[in-house]
Design a protein that fits this description.
The chain has 130 residues and is mainly alpha-helical. The chain has one domain. The protein is 78% helix and 0% strand. The chain contains 4 helices and no strands. The longest helix has 34 residues, at 3-36.
Length: 130
């Protein structure tokens, strides 16, 4: 596979990953609401749906990792470090932008997840300061 084709495939999968993460954020908000109402049925349903989206993201991550074998070491380094350089291609620049946007959203999901976990589990939370 040529490098440009691999970069195109990586970009496509990163966009799908971002869409899954947006859905995880929405489901996290729904889960928070279901927890507030102590709606056990909704909690189970939303957790299952959220897990499905996380699974999709895991598959996409594996595919992205495999596709990275087809890009140059320089491009791989740029992509892995989210640092666009003036001499990088538009494809690599776009991939870095998507990765940065995805990381910002992931950080927000993690913050919401931490707050929810601490609220439900208190000191037993995975995120509690021990």
């Amino acid at each position: 596979m040529e490098s440009e084709k691999a970069l195109s495939e990586i970009k496509e999968r990163l966009e799908k990953k971002y869409v899954s993460l947006v859905e995880i954020m929405r489901l996290t908000d729904e889960l928070n609401e279901a927890l507030s109402m102590n709606d056990r049925r909704s909690i189970r349903l939303v957790m299952t749906m959220r897990g499905g989206e996380m699974e999709k993201m895991g598959v996409l991550d594996g595919e992205i990792e495999s596709l990275m074998d087809f890009v140059s070491a320089k491009e791989r380094d740029t992509i892995n470090n989210y640092k666009t350089k003036e001499e990088c291609s538009k494809s690599v620049e776009r991939i870095c932008q998507i990765k940065q946007r995805t990381q910002r959203l992931l950080d927000k999901v993690i913050e919401k997840d931490k707050a929810m976990s601490k609220r439900v589990y208190g000191d037993s939370s995975f995120y509690s300061d021990k």
